[in-house]
Structures are given as C-alpha cells and as structure tokens.
UniProtKB/TrEMBL annotation:
Name the UniProt record assigns to this protein: Sel1 repeat family protein
Pfam families for the chain: Sel1 (PF08238)
Top-rank lineage group of the source organism: Bacteria
Amino acid sequence: MRTFFSKIRNYASRHRLRLALLGVAAAAFMVIAAGLVLKFRYCLPCSDPERVERGAALLCCDSDSAKRRGLSMLERAAGNGLPQALALLGELYLEPPEGYVLGRPETRACLGGPLPGNGDRSLAGFRRLAGVGDLDGRTLYNLGVLLEKGLLREDELDGSAEDYFQRSAEAGSPFGMFAVGRVYHLQGDYAEAAHWFGVAFEKGGHPEAAIMLGDYHLHGRGMKRDRDQAMAWYRKALRSAKESAAKGLVGNLELVAGKRLNLAAAGQQGLVETRPIRVEYRLQGSLDEYLVFLRDGEQPIGRVVRRGDSILASYAGPPQAGEQQVASMVQGLDWVLQSYAVGRYGGEQKFRFLLVGE
C-alpha cells in the first residue's frame, strides 16, 4: 500500500504542470457548461429580443415549468421596456377585442386562450407602449382599437383612436389604412374613404377594404356606378380572404364577398346615373351595440349588435323587416341603411348616407 501511494506522489511530482492544466481545463469546461445551461434554460445572459423569442417558444412547450420560465423571460424583457414584449404580454393576458390583430397568433393558439388574471397589468403594459417612440404600424393600430373599444382612455394615451389609426396608416399598416377609411366612411366622405380602402388593399390585400370598394362601385358612393368594377373588387376580396396574411379579421369575409358578387351579377342590371338621395342618420348605444335612427325619427330603423365572434344587423322595415350576419359593425350599419333606402326609394337610386349629431 505504501508503495502504491508512493508511486502516486512520484507521478504527481513529475506531472504537476500537466495536472494543473487539466484542472484549469476542467474548470473552464464547467464554467462554459454552466453558462450554456443559464442561457438555454433561463436565458440570463440573453438580450431582450432573444428573451422574447425564447420565451414565446417555451410557452408552446407541454411542460408547465417551461411555460413558467418562458413567461418569466417575457416579463423581464417587458420590465426593460421592450415594445415587442409589452405588446405580447398584453395579448396573452387580455381577450383581444374585435379588430385587434395579434402579433403572434401561434403563441396565443398554444395557450388556448388568455392567461388567467393580470388584465389590469396587461393594460398597464399597453399604456407604457404609448410612451415608446418609433412603434410599428400594427402596434399603433392595436392601440387605436383598444381606445375605440373603451379599454383605454384618450387621456392615458394622449390621443384618440383616430389619431392612432392615422399614425398606423402613415407607418404603412394596411389595418391602419382600412381604419382611417372606415372613419371617413362613417362621416359620409366616401371619396376620401375610397382612397384609403384602395391603399389598404394595395399595400396589404385587406379583404374588407376590397368589399367596401365593391360596394362603392355598386351603389355609386363617391364615384360613378359601375357594376363591372364592383364585381372585379368582390372577386379580389374573395381571393384575398383566402390567401392574404390579413388574419385576425372577424366574420367570414369570403362568404360576404361571395354574396356581394352574386348580388351584383344577378340584380344590378341597367343602372342609370341619378343624383344621390341624401339620407341623414344618427346612432345611439355603445361600440358593441347601437341603434340606428333617421335624423328626426323617434323609432330606430335598425340595430347592430356584437355577440362574441358574431355580429348581427337587424332592420325594422318597411317594407320588410329582416336580419343579416355581417363581418363588422361598419358593414352592419351599411346593411341597415341600404335596407331602409332601397325599401323607400327603390334599388335603382344612388344614396349618400350622412351621420349627424343628436
């Protein structure tokens, strides 16, 4: 035994430098290994954009512990003020309202719905976003939607929904461009609305913008009536609803465009140029449900209401009451007004609908 330990001491004495180097190498390996574990498991040395990517990927894992790590990474990046992290956390904790365009729908789909709790914290993150410079067009549009739906207030974001839609459009977002067009549509400025709908379709293939332009050509709003042009726009809407990346839009726009195309093909023959009939209307209610009145009418001529993911427009008549599933609140209003005008003045007329105050 003494001989054995003596041999070890002699070997260590002769190879002291080699053993020291091996020890240093082993220590370095352990440091590198520990760093890799920290990076890939906890993303501690990561940049904030890396934390967002890694955190979003972990949220789609089956492991609850992986999901918790992913959420922690997102919260750290959001705490540092990264806009992408603030927006993603807001989307994960909040049920997005109609019109909101998810930045990472695949991450939302992995979770199967909003994360429990922290809705107020989510809105606080959106408020922080408003103070961040150089936001992208989609984020600006979504802030406008949250303002429009009453989830955020103008004094909190220092601007109105229309302001954010305009900024979004100027930043190149087709969703923002469509929203600006919708604002002009509700104001009765169809020429300006048509311009923005056209840009929204040109820049991003927005299918609802194409439907609105088809309606404008079919009914002569801000332009001459042209059935062929209307049908061309409805066909573009059909293709875009199937192929475009403009997801997050509610309603079956493909079905809506198909119905419009059939209407134009079957029932809009022999249109003649006439001076548009002015129809003034007013609205009462909320963003999710409103009644439609004629300017001096005491009884509503129709109602548009959102229930979950569906929107129903109803017309009270005459000559005949009815209801219609529509893709948006704007289309519901349009359907009610068209039903009234055609019922009273006939389908061969042109109409100009103008929103008035109380």
